[in-house]
Amino acid sequence: MMKYNILKTVFALAVITTFLSCGEDFLEKSPTEFISAEDVITTGELDPSISDANLRGIYSMMINTGTGGFSTDHEDFGQKGYDIFTDFLSGDLALTANNYNRYGNFVNLLSTVDYADNDNYMPWRYYYRVIRSANQVISTLGGNEAIPESDASKHALGQAKTLRAYAYFYLSQLFQKEYNATEAILPLYTTPTDPVFAQSPMSDVYDFMIEDLTSADSLLIGFDRANKTGANQDVARALLAYVYAAKGDSASNLLAKGLADQVIDAGYPLMTSTEVVGGFNDLNTPAWIWGFDITLANGLDLASWWGQIDVFTYSYQWAGDRKGIDNVLFSKIKDNDIRKTQFDTINSLQPRNKFYNAARVIGGQRNIEDDYIYMRVAEMYLLSAEMAAKEGQDAAARTRLNELLSERFTEATDYAYVNGLSGDDLLDEVILQTRIELWGEGKSYLSMKRNKQTMTRGTNHVFHSGLSIPYTDERLTFEIPQAEIQNNPFIN
Description:
By secondary structure, the protein is mainly alpha-helical. The protein has 2 domains: 2-274 and 374-487, Serine Threonine Protein Phosphatase 5, Tetratricopeptide repeat (Alpha Horseshoe); 275-373, no CATH class. It has helices at residues 2-20, 37-46, 48-61, 79-90, 104-107, 118-140, 151-174, 202-219, 233-247, 250-265, 305-309, 316-319, 327-331, 377-390, 394-405, 423-437, 444-450, 482-487, and strands spanning 93-95, 184-187, 199-201, 288-292, 323-325, 372-376, 454-456, 468-470. The longest helix has 24 residues, at 151-174. The termini are far apart.
């Protein structure tokens, strides 16, 4: 018992060091010189609370400032920060005024072609930190092939594998133009003690994500999460659907559709017409699948997603770095569509009626208490429709799309045109509705890449107004950062 208590104390200190360390090297290791490898791989099973603490650290990393390596950078605040990056690259999010020069070089498409620019380093470091931390959790639970005895440990292992795959998925999207099985893209780290590796081919990275998420699907059976911050079976299935959809072949499309339908069948209702203009600020919204319950204890303020997007928060949006929907995309929203009212036509098409603090005091929310959204069930309706349309299942695609639109229009006649669409016209409509429904939620970039689109900016962009740019343009994909190239001898 004394040996176990000492082990627990030392390992807890190692965990704390892992999550508080701000070293520059993403391969920084937690101190393990005081405990044996055998102890490490059994610790999580001996005391599940240690694995839970590790996981809480990863979930916190997803919302904390400075996790990309720059604590004073007001664009560095975890997953929602990269959602803003990708929405800008897609062109659907328009920077309409740039008085404080936040995102200026990025939106001007200068950052992504300069491997020395911090905007490339931040996501690379952040996602590999998630991977490193997930690998540590997996190691404490017995490793990649382990099947723990207790349900608690199975659920912890399933969450860690889901989070590891989540990070690899976003890296694969941000740092490569499109799926190419033989092209080397990312170093693939599967344990916390791996040495520095060369880039693995895309097929290996995707196979690893699929393996992780398939295993997580099984491990997370019966996981009853305390709130939607935890990644449950539906999160794992939805991420796996996105992975298959990004591959783009017919067999993968069908697998993606099946997984999306499984998540839909789990019973999350679509957001109602009232809810889609209700602020997007509450994790308890029934349609939300995954997010984070923000409290004052998280210490978020100006450097946050709300501090960049919400005019009713003390924010850049309020102060002068204005962001709104691309005006061409806005013009394609039908007048009777409730989503048209999400945007303020007087104030630069800002999302004043989509994302907002409930008090609705201009510049009012100083310390953030509004929640973060990562995923909701509408994504799965749209992904199911997209995959069905690509595979010639027009009726299934129309059904899923109509189910969504029935919550966005009062009269069925307003969206009856969908029933007359087929083939490419139907697919184009699904893609358009995806951009409208999920605007500002970090999903347009993923759609742009898997659908191989050329995006044309409207006239309300400060930079590159009217620019047409294909998804393969190097400016739309991040560069492997200078720091990684300098520290990894296998990358030229």
